[in-house]
Amino acid sequence: AILAILASTCMARNVLTTGETLHAGEHLDIGQYTLSMRYDCNLVLYENSNPLWASNTQYEENVVCQVVLRKDGILVVSYVGSEADYPVWWSSNDRLDSGNYALVLHEDGNLVIYGTDIWSTGTAKISAGGPVDGGSAIGPATGNQNVTAIPNTWRSVLKSGEQLSSEQFLNTQQFKLIAQEDCNLVLYEYNIVIWASNTVVGAHAGCRAAMQVDGNFVIYFNLHAIWSSHTDRENGNYVLVLQQDGNVVIYGPDVWSTGTHVKSGGGRAVVTAMNGTVGGRGSVNQKHVTAIRKVGTSALLEF
């Protein structure tokens, strides 16, 4: 399969979707956190300049490496050879169903894989001026309604327990998903509407769009649900992502994480990541190897 290369943009990016690749020197970042695919083949998560987690795949000699999120939900760091790519680290030995997954670097420093997709607006790569589709019909209120508004900063992800209040939005590149004050949830490409929930109530209606812990995305007017994605299922960690291609997608639940989220009280525990990689404040593991090898697992990862 042809893999999409993560393009450099002037806007920060914190999401990698199925088939996308970070090459050496490329990164995801949000706030003070950066996930960097380094030139020495080490995948490192930083808080400012402090490493929190690493794949520990650093090599003495110059090699060409990349990290890709595969369609089976596994994140793989590979050495790029002249005839084939050789995996040197992967997030799990357990293959999931083939589908669309998302790797999200969160504002709290946690790096999480979600999948598969359970709903979308279907607006990927749609041309400006395309049809406006209301999506799902009015749905019931479901799940825990104890949600919090997101901060007024740039972001493209809404996670379980968060909501868009009136006039708040997600944005990336030329796309913006906004909870308008008239209660309509609208996706714009520049100033052109390409999707809407078609839930206009009236001016200053005071509505909110909540990503619930049961995977359902719901628009509420007062305490009444007037639209939903109809994706309610078992409680878990879900994310609504406004992607760079203009598609709005719900992924979940989570299938893997680095466990590097900020602890309450401002502290941070040293974490042990999957495959035995240890992260925390301090230097990245400087252990060098002289040959390509599999890290932290004995199973052969087939492509």
UniProtKB/TrEMBL annotation:
SUPFAM superfamilies: alpha-D-mannose-specific plant lectins. InterPro entries: Bulb-type_lectin_dom (IPR001480), Bulb-type_lectin_dom_sf (IPR036426). GO terms for biological process: response to other organism. It comes from the Eukaryota. Transmembrane segments: none annotated. Residues 13-126, 155-263 form the Bulb-type lectin domain. This is Lectin related protein.
